[in-house]
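User: Teach me something about this protein's shape.
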Amino acid sequence: MATAGYGTALAVVRVGHWQNKIEQVFVGETRPWFQGSRLTAWELAKDGIPVTLLADSAAAQAMRQAGINWLIVGADRIAANGDVANKIGTYGLAVAARYHGAKVMVVAPQATVDMTVSDGSGIPLEQRSANEILDAAGIENCLPEITVANPAFDITPAGLIDFIVTEKGVFQAPFDEAFKCLKTGKTA
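Assistant: First, the predicted structure itself:
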């Protein structure tokens, strides 16, 4: 299963497909901006990679039924201990992946690893406008007196992540130990 848009994580998916290691990719739609359907699924289809688009809420069921064995995601920021800030829903996907026995791989540029932030609690999370949810597709779908929470990102704990891949190498837990080489400019 792949999430987010075109970039580092999608490059891993492409190479995996070209090496006959990935047969099928399941992509969440990524609401409310639909990056999964507008970007990720579109790019994969254009490359001839078999892709199935899912409603975000259908991901766990797909993991159970389709036998998905990898969750590959990007990251907006990675703390020194390996906690990952990424698009909202990544944490839930990682929990579902762990439950269903799928490995979790985070693929991001090395610059995403912030050794000055000890763990995910030090990463601020953006809250988006309530209108993105209240007025989906131009349709008012909720009473105005209802409070809306619309976080753009969540934190996936390092304990749910099997591998973090950067251009410096493949890192495994414990990530705070594994990332020490980044301070010296060495590779994993």
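Now, about its shape. The first strand starts at residue 25 and ends at 28. The two ends are 25 Å apart (CA to CA). If you'd like, I can walk through any region in more detail.
User: That's plenty for now, thanks!
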